[in-house]
Task: structure prediction
Amino acid sequence: MVDAAVLVTIASVCVGFVLFVTAASGARGRWNRGLVITLFAAAICCLTVVPLTVALTAGV
Result:
């Protein structure tokens, strides 16, 4: 059975990837600069901060 920490990490990386692609698409589409920066920041958090936090609390 897959541990909950693994599922949280996989979900976070998937959400981060979607946010990153959306932000990149918004940057090319000349969206509001604040929105694009917010999307990039959220993507970085989902791709790095959440998995690292999960890994450190799970004792991996």
Observations:
- The mean pLDDT is 93.
- The CA atoms of residues 24 and 36 lie 8 Å apart.
- Helices lie at 4-28, 33-58.
- The two ends are 17 Å apart (CA to CA).
